[in-house]
Specification:
61 residues; mainly alpha
C-alpha cells in the first residue's frame, strides 16, 4: 500500500513540474489532446500502461 501512495505522489510531482516549468507548452499539449480522436487516446493510454508495467516489472522484478 505504501508503494501505491508513493507512486501516486510521484505522478503528482511530475505533473506539477510540467505545469510549473512549462505552462505554455502544457496548455498546447492539452489543446492538442482535446482534438485527438478517441481511438488515438485509447491507444496512447494502452501504450502508457504497457510501458509503465514493463518499467515496474524490470525494476521490481
Amino acid at each position: 500500500m505504501t508503494d501505491l501512495i508513493v507512486g501516486l505522489a510521484l505522478v503528482l510531482v511530475i505533473e506539477g513540474l510540467l505545469w510549473a516549468a512549462f505552462p505554455t507548452a502544457a496548455r498546447h499539449m492539452l489543446e492538442a489532446v482535446a482534438q485527438m480522436g478517441e481511438g488515438n487516446l485509447r491507444m496512447g493510454g494502452a501504450i502508457a500502461i504497457l510501458v509503465g508495467v514493463g518499467v515496474v516489472w524490470l525494476v521490481r522484478g
